Amino acid sequence: xxxxxxxxxxxxxSTVIDAHTGKDxxxxxxxxxxxxxxxxxxxxxxxxxxxxxxxxELKGLVEESLSKAGINYxxxxxxxxxxxxxxxxxxxxxxxxxxxxxxxxxxGGVGKSxxxxxxxxxxxxEGARVALLDADIYGxxxxxxxxxxxxRPQESEGGNMKPVIAHGLQSMSIGFLVxxxxxxxxxxxxxxxxxxxxxxxxxxxxxxxxxxxxPPGTGDTQLTLSQKIPVSGAVIVTTPQDIALIDAxxxxxxxxxxxxxxxxxxxxxxxxICSNCNHAEEIFGHGGGERMASDSNxxxxxxxxxxxxxxxxxxxxxxxVAKDPESKVSMMYQEIARKVVATxxxxxExxxxxxxxxxx
Length: 360
Ligand SMILES: Nc1ncnc2c1ncn2[C@@H]1O[C@H](COP(=O)(O)OP(=O)(O)OP(=O)(O)O)[C@@H](O)[C@H]1O
Ligand SMILES: [Mg+2]
Description:
single chain, alpha/beta, 2 domains, 4-stranded mixed sheet, 11 helices, 16 strands, 32% helix, 22% strand, globular, binds adenosine-5'-triphosphate, binds magnesium ion
């Protein structure tokens, strides 16, 4: 065997592709340190997004490419450092929150809230500190989906609200403040104010990612979001059928107009697997999200099945990813969540922000 050098190891690492960024470890600047003790190679990797559930697989990929080059003894360590990414111009950063990611759709009822809560839980399971803001002022659903609709926010020492902690997430929703059953008549400016207050008057505690669950469409809430809330990126949820795709396209165009980067498209209710006989059926068609992503030059983040327990789990206040993080569908949510934040990590970082080291 020829002598091992750092150079040689770097070359090998430049052939290992991270499935979430689509880039190799060397050019993504993930290689923090390489040391060589006799025949043992020690590699320290530093990812720019949290990925605990991907560590084993990535380690395997690195070991495989090392062993192809005749290196059979290695120690691979993987950690993550989450930075803060640029937001639309003229909007100030939110104290205590590094990154805000909006989950949006054009059409209603496509599964934004269900997807948002499961993505938030997924990011947490990957090792991040996560908040979930329910921006649906007319019809808040997160208190119920999180199983905490009886809870009310506590007052903080500074006279603000503390987020309601649910399944480990820091959450806030108008649903914690007003009675679910009493109909609310909101006019545009009231919606704007309510949303701003929920966001600004809550003491967020050292959050890496805040997921914002938006109401459908392109109305007052979206306008407030685009003008007043520091958003680093948006994710569009759609179902596969044409009618939803047309609306999703409108949602996408709106974010582009206000310079909020689209991180990608998620196709929800993509395929139905019968819980009785396992028969797969494409109720709303299939592949529309992927086509839309390629047509509009954005990322396709993945597809989620139309599956009975996804609904019953959120109805029970125990979303699938919290209930069984190792189920097939939870792993799908986790993979999509990693892709969302890996895509964000390709944007430009905010200058002067202090990144936190996440110990994993
Ligand atoms: N993949 C899925 N499989 C099965 N049921 C789902 C799935 N995704 C969402 N649902 C169910 O579909 C219904 C609508 O979902 P959800 O409330 O998340 O949509 P939404 O886009 O947030 O709606 P709105 O536009 O009203 O805010 C809910 O009953 C939810 O449990
Ligand atoms: Mg919703």
